[in-house]
Amino acid sequence: MPVHVARPSIPCDKPLPLANVLEVQRLLFLLEAPEYCMRAFREHGVNGQDLVVLEEEDLDDSRFKFPRHVQRKVMRIPRAWRTYVSITGSSTNPVVSVDQYVQYYSKDRPAAVQTQLRAAFRMVDTNNNGLLTFEEFLVGFSLLEAALAEQQALPHAQRSQPQAEGELQPAEAEESQGGKAGGKGEGGGWFGW
């Protein structure tokens, strides 16, 4: 019989090192970690300070023997925290502004990307106040990470697929359609990179 897991309702709206066990549970829930993972973290009292210093080798402990895909979900939290601190410049700043977000992610990218980054920011800013708490940033970080991974995999997948005789190459198909193929922005990825 499947177990129904109630959604943890305590928001984590403070810096990760100050998060208590229940707030860590909410972060894991937002990343869709399975119940057995959440239970292990709850039973062993894993709090925000523990997550800040978490390394992949720590998940080799017998108390935390999770499948690889679950380990990747858990490791997103400290990676997102390190990025969050890089953006804000401080581990005590509880929010990221839209300007900080755009400036951080638009480094060495075309100017057109800024518009797409602002749209991505608005998508994860659930309360529409122009600021992201760590919880909102974590969800957005996961989406951005997935989009970047998809974009990096896309060119590789296109190169490795054999073309049937007479089939147009992607550049030829684009030219024959009179424009850009895909419709996802300049570079073909979600953010045009």
Any overview of this molecule?
This protein is mainly alpha-helical. The chain has one domain: Recoverin, domain 1 (Orthogonal Bundle), CATH 1.10.238. Helices cover 52% and strands 2% of the residues. The protein is built from eight helices and two strands, in the order ααααβααβαα. It is globular, with a radius of gyration of 20 Å. The N terminus and C terminus are likely disordered. Keywords: Calcium.
Task: Describe the secondary structure blueprint for this structure.
Elements: H1 21-30, H2 35-43, H3 48-52, H4 68-88, E1 96-97, H5 98-105, H6 113-124, E2 131-132, H7 134-160, H8 170-177
Antiparallel strand pairs: 1-2
Helix pairs in contact: 1-2, 4-7, 5-6, 6-7
Quickly describe the structure.
With 193 residues, the protein is mainly α.
